[in-house]
Amino acid sequence: xxxxxxxxxxxxxxxxxxxxxxxxxxxxxxxxxxxxxxxxxxxxxxxxxxxxxxxxxxxxxxxxxxxxxxxxxxxxxxxxxxxxxxxxxxxxxxxxxxxxxxxxxxxxxxxxxxxxxxxxxxxxxxxxxxxxxxxxxxxxxxxxxxxxxxxxxxxxxxxxxxxxxxxxxxxxxxxxxxxxxxxxxxxxxxxxxxxxxxxxxxxxxxxxxxxxxxxxxxxxxxxxxxxxxxxxxxxxxxxxxxxxxxxxxxxxxxxxxxxxxxxxxxxxxxxxxxxxxxxxxxxxxxxxxxxxxxxxxxxxxxxxxxxxxxxxxxxxxxxxxxxxxxxxxxxxxxxxxxxxxxxxxxxxxxxxxxxxxxxxxxxxxxxxxxxxxxxxxxxxxxxxxxxxxxxxxxxxxxxxxxxxxxxxxxxxxxxxxxxxxxxxxxxxxxxxxxxxxxxxxxxxxxxxxxxxxxxxxxxxxxxxxxxxxxxxxxxxxxxxxxxxxxxxxxxxxxxxxxxxxxxxxxxxxxxxxxxxxxxxxxxxxxxxxxxxxxxxxxxxxxxxxxxxxxxxxxxxxxxxxxxxxxxxxxxxxxxxxxxxxxxxxxxxxxxxxxxxxxxxxxxxxxxxxxxxxxxxxxxxxxxxxxxxxxxxxxxxxxxxxxxxxxxxxxxxxxxxxx
Amino acid sequence: xxxxxxxxxxxxxxxxxxxxxxxxxxxxxxxxxxxxxxxxxxxxxxxxxxxxxxxxxxxxxxxxxxxxxxxxxxxxxxxxxxxxxxxxxxxxxxxxxxxxxxxxxxxxxxxxxxxxxxxxxxxxxxxxxxxxxxxxxxxxxxxxxxxxxxxxxxxxxxxxxxxxxxxxxxxxxxxxxxxxxxxxxxxxxxxxxxxxxxxxx
Lengths: 658, 201
Hints:
Distance between the termini of chain A: 31 Å
CATH superfamily of chain A: Cytochrome c oxidase-like, subunit I domain
Largest interface: A-B, 86 and 64 residues
Radius of gyration of chain A: 25 Å
CATH class of chain B: Mainly Alpha
Oligomer: heterodimer
Low-confidence stretches of chain B: none
Number of domains of chain B: 1
Mean pLDDT of chain B: 94
Mean pLDDT of chain A: 93
CATH architecture of chain A: Up-down Bundle
Structural class of chain B: mainly alpha
Number of strands of chain B: 1
Largest sheet of chain A: 2 strands, antiparallel
Low-confidence stretches of chain A: 1-19
Shape of chain B: elongated
Radius of gyration of chain B: 21 Å
Number of strands of chain A: 3
Strand content of chain B: under 5%
CATH topology of chain B: Four Helix Bundle (Hemerythrin (Met), subunit A)
Shape of chain A: globular
Strand order of the largest sheet of chain A: 2-3
Order of helices and strands of chain B: EHHHHH
CATH superfamily of chain B: Cytochrome c oxidase, subunit III, four-helix bundle
């Protein structure tokens, strides 16, 4: 495509003249980057796009990379906490009738483990990776709605702290991560524990939804000129589909948790069968979110695999279109499976059969993806480095998890192993194999971009084998002990059942798996401090994030790239075509058309602001207070309104006015 | 890596209306997720309806008149809302200011009538699940009504300051029009569910 195609007559909108008509102040034009030398350009952009110094400055940051780094570190810390929960549980279960942890604490431990891993680690970390990478990969300077993105982080952080402070005060939720009624309802869940679950869920999902909307708009409207739909990187496609799944799934859990707290706090009867409510309604609503949730975690991971494999197989992904269509198909199908979590509730047989069929159906697009990846590797010249090792680990582990998934989709088998360790083994194979392994591979792939330094390859290989062996040692035997009948969520078991030795083995594997993360953490810190400098593109990969320096400057790209190929850096090895004509004294970026990515508007991106943090504090305080009284919503409305007005009220920057 | 200039964008405008602007897409995204919330709440209500053959659970019928008045007000407000939109597209300050004041008032009016809707339901939220669900549905829509009216009033004030003379602000007015359509549109099924479905039983 030539640059002339991008600015043909039909792309320049008729309203172009409208900007000079009507009651609007003329644009106070500033210096443009056209013909500017690189040193002055850098100086201008660095001043325009910088995060202000000082604590207030840091708290006001709207740079997607700064926010994403905070997200990544916070999510990693929550992973460590959730992992410590697991280790504590495994020590308790390592032998029959151990007295280390009592039932009450054990209930809190497995609930916090699930809640932390699902809501505070898995979803935030895949979204955070997207916040960092999507704007870079589509060739723009910041995420859409940067202040909303900052607000999302503060909401997430305070939601996570809220849960963990509750745990420290021995008032953590103890009703399982899905908090079924009637156990969590007003009759059987006294105290504030289930309220903590409900409000923390509602609250952190606000953050997820905000990030999803920002991601969708970034992908649809901020792509670099020329990046038509068929040239969007697969990772970005994965994040786009995931964000749509978030938009349509997360409201379900917010509705569920809101109904729950209404039942508990103001005496509604939505889940109370004695007064015309229904307990199974809770399960339907929860799993209408809960099943897509699995794919919210899994789809970005497939995007990571689709980024790692071409980079190391040294060829573009085989079946690009097939991979994209599979992502979309999985996104849609993920909404048609939720009832398979409820086979043991006595549903009508026809319904169960339908959901068995749909559960098996989703294996087809997932299978298409796996075969496309294998074909890419087959036809390429694979360079085996740590990221690719983790992809191999993903294949092995995820396929096992997928196979037990097909087994569990069948109602008679599901009824037998329901609520046993067989199910625990299955979903850890799917979630850790399907999501955490690609995530670890992605960490090795993109760490040099984020920090400018390489992680140790040798430690990486140790990490991989330790994780692989530790994981399988911990979770494979759970299939067996599950088939023997060991139920999940028991804090101990009698010696006569003969489960002692296998549980000791599982616990040893869990400790090994935990140690692999200690090694990973060491490799991260060591790499950040002492790693060899990475340069712009250490892997010689083909997507746009590698076109800029490592770490990228605050403005991402000195000049916005013009995209001609799905792997732009491989197609334009000589010199990358770029666009010019943007202002350098205001935060300008390009808004393009949805399908063809024709440049359409020079949009101003929002400047740093403290108001998103203040708004998050106001919203957080309201949610916290609402555990104690419904009037919190009334009292909280005023500070929320004030902070939102402060957020949106123009301050006179060029970014606000034009 | 080396770069070569390939495209000059200096002539691009600095704002656009409707689907050209990212804010419009963001608004659409929030409508999608909030609409999903409405659909799920309505779904939960219908689920309970199918579960209990004697739905309404012997509660008295709701008085539909306050709700019907709200419905008529909301539908009527769509006309000035869309007239406002055409002026916003033309960036014409005077009619936009008038239109924003009118829309603020037409937002407040149904809110006032809404106050009388809650007692007209003829049941409390804690009486039974039927009462709970219709309070939840009405509450959910009222939250949207309040936030959008608040937003409209703030934007109206903004349009009377010097900040109003900017393409962006006129774009914001357009997006506000768009969101008000959503608030009106979501009310229709909820109105039918609250006031007319119980009359079927």
